[in-house]
Amino acid sequence: MSLQENLGRTIVRLRRGKGFSQEAFANEAGIDRRYMSDIENGKRNISIDILERICNKLGMKMSELFVEVEKG
Q1: What is the pLDDT of residues 4-28, one digit of tens each?
Q2: Above 90 in pLDDT, residue 1?
């Protein structure tokens, strides 16, 4: 599995754990829902800005997100 795919799966798991639908999460993070779908499906190489928005909405630091990504 690629890093993008693993990141996407991790974001899905964490988002669902917080009780967000994909659409609600994307709206609240200021990300287009289709773009969010591509991220979660490992189809986008996202910017630091988008990653920061995702982390802020998840209530975690980027370093914490990558620890979760490494866990698989």
Answers
A1: 999 999 999 999 999 999 999 999 9
A2: no
- What six digits make up the tokens of 61? 């630091």
- From the list 59, 51, 45, the residue with the least C-alpha distance to 14 is 59
**What tokens were used for 40?**
């979660």
Q: Is residue 71 part of a domain?
A: no
Single-letter residue type at 2? S
Alpha-carbon separation of residue 64 from 12, 22, 23, 34, 52 (angstroms): 15, 21, 23, 25, 12
**Do the domain assignments include residue 37?**
yes
In this structure, are residues 8 and 32 in contact, taking their beta carbons and an 8 Å threshold? no
Q: Which domain holds residue 30?
A: 3-66
Q: With respect to residue 30, please indicate whether it lies within any of the assigned structural domains.
A: yes
The predicted model scores a pTM of 0.94
Q: Does residue 15 sit within a domain?
A: yes
